[in-house]
Amino acid sequence: MAKTKRDLEIEIKELTLALADIKESTEHEIRRYKRALAQAQIDLTVDEVDTRPARAVYACPQSEEAVKRASAEWDRNVTEPEYGGDWQRINTYIKGSEGIGWTWEDDYTRNGQFSWCGAFVAFAYGQSVLPSIRKKIFPSCYRMWTNWGASSRCRDGENPLPGDIVTVYTSAEKSPAYGNHIVLCVSAIDGDGYFHTIEGNAHGEGPEGRIEGVIKRTRHMSNVAHIYRLLSEDYEA
Asked: Can you give the pTM of this predicted structure?
């Protein structure tokens, strides 16, 4: 039985669709092989590239040690009391000889009882820094600005280095001018102006999830009030 014109048109359409499928599949395979070839070329030359992570640049050995001590405190899961972590540790920052040493303060037992962000950074530096500085200057952004703002410790206009003490704004108003929260920078800034911090008395990531306490966080340079870097004379001999 002879094929009608309609039968031929249907066959031609089916063949056209089949050819289109074959063409698309072939192009997909070609793209896949090209990607595999490109990756193989990269793998062949990878030995020529130094893939070791860049070592962090610290201002001094004490600042490197401060970052290590802060990281160790983060590992302890220090939280505000209601989060169930090691909240008693906060008393060490506030009252202990390695923190700000405010022995007259009541034991810390409730959230908001004491603004301890500066006390945490003081503890990170510990006994490497003169006790008078930890006791009198570390406790607040205001004290840092009035004591260090006009000195060479203030590094405004520079990029922070790991171990630098940074005061930041925690609201869009960016007030007061000296900042309202103290953090420890633990990384160089990236190309978009972000840097990593370890902080006390803040909300962020703890070792077991999001908490309020000793946390890790990412900050942006646009929210920085001031950057401080201790001088050799600030350290114990």
From this structure: 0.77
